[in-house]
Design brief:
By secondary structure, the protein is α+β, with helices and mostly antiparallel strands. It has helices at 2-19, 36-40, 55-58, 244-247, 259-264, 287-293, 339-350; strands at 70-77, 83-92, 97-114, 120-140, 143-156, 159-174, 179-193, 205-213, 219-225, 267-276, 279-286, 304-312, 315-323, 329-338. It has a single domain, classed as Outer membrane protein transport protein (OMPP1/FadL/TodX) (Porin).
Length: 355
């Protein structure tokens, strides 16, 4: 049975990787980091084995490495005061399988509405929401596979849209060497009900990553290859920087991105400082974010992100700060705990054990 499941996952993953490469123009909030740890590590990570249940959103297979009966809440103040957050819960079914459920929302705020004649018609709001049903199973000793089913709802004023996305993931973890490798196909799916008449693509993303903790130093490094299914990550897709018909500037002026620069845009490098089990610091560099948000003659540090995590009593508190541009920084906060820790304390107290 395990062989059939593995073959099915590999077949679907390969077909998605090479057959459905698109930029994605709808439900792009699905690509946002869902926890402070992910945000601090550059915005994407599919291999981190930190026992955090929120990593299952990045790679559903990582649910199998999370603490049992874990719950996590996250909140982000995004660019231009856009607010979004998530909640996730996961627990073991048995020694080989796990399930989880999550919810993500994004609130764009309130906007002034104007007609085509520039007449104020009041205000409107917009937002996105997504449910996640996650399942993970250990197929071999060091190999876990996972699946996430995600119905999506979005609205802009009176226009609504409904879609369905799927995540497929795999993780290979060697605890004796503190090494983890992850692979995932994220946000593959379809917009079932479009806002109007035209259906749009979802932000399908194929990612590959590794994480390794040093044997004799309190550091763990992560390297993530993002957008494996799409090579050209330049926001000017045809190479033209200006449209001569609109700007009057010669279209002979071209923008070009070197092969090496384009390759670096796919990589996210992260590092963690882990002096104890109850405290950690994180930092990362996302070259694509740096290239897209940097401005000439303005030093902003775009592409860098930082964060930390501290465990107090039975709760883990994480904070992140990601630099997107001169005025577009993102602050994130995550709070998580394992319900098992409270159950153990209650049992010990009942037995008269002083903890």
């Amino acid at each position: 049975m395990r062989r059939y499941i593995l073959a099915l996952i590999c077949g679907i993953s390969l077909s998605l990787s090479f057959g459905f490469a698109s930029d994605g123009t709808v439900y792009n909030f699905l690509s946002l980091p869902n926890s402070s740890a992910v945000s601090a590590l550059g915005g994407a990570n599919v291999s981190l084995q930190n026992k955090d249940v929120t990593m299952a959103v990045q790679n559903p297979a990582l649910l199998g490495l999370a603490d049992d009966r874990s719950i996590s809440l996250s909140y982000f103040n995004y660019v231009s005061d856009v607010q979004y957050g998530s909640a996730l819960y996961g627990q073991a079914i048995d020694s080989l399988s796990w399930w989880g459920v999550g919810f993500t929302y994004l609130n764009y705020g309130t906007f002034d509405a104007y007609s085509e004649y520039d007449v104020n018609e009041g205000s409107f709001s917009a937002g996105d929401a997504c449910l996640s049903a996650i399942y993970a199973r250990r197929l071999f000793r060091h190999f876990i596979a996972g699946l996430s089913l995600k119905p999506v709802y979005s609205y802009i004023d009176n226009y609504t849209s409904f879609g369905l996305a799927v995540d497929l993931g795999a993780n290979y973890y060697l605890p004796d060497y503190d090494f983890s490798a992850g692979f995932t196909v994220r946000n593959f799916g379809v917009q079932i009900t479009p806002y109007e008449d035209t259906r749009e693509n979802l932000p399908c993303d194929v990612q590959l990553g590794v994480s390794k903790r040093l044997a004799h130093a309190p550091f763990r490094f992560s390297l993530t290859y993002d957008r494996l299914n799409h090579w050209n990550l330049d926001y000017v897709k045809d190479g033209s920087l200006y449209d001569a018909t609109e700007t009057g500037i010669s279209s002979d002026y071209k923008r070009s991105v070197s092969w090496g620069n384009m390759l670096l845009r796919h990589f996210i490098v992260g590092v963690e400082f882990l002096p104890s089990k109850n405290f950690s610091l994180m930092a990362a560099y996302n070259h694509r974010r740096n290239e897209e948000f940097s401005m000439d003659n303005i030093g902003s540090g775009s592409g860098f992100s930082f964060g930390g995590n501290i465990k107090v009593y039975k709760f883990s508190l994480g904070v992140s700060y990601a630099i997107y541009g001169p005025s577009g920084n993102v602050l994130g906060i995550s709070l998580s705990s394992s319900l098992n820790s409270f159950r153990k304390s209650d049992s010990a107290h009942t037995a008269g054990i002083d903890l």
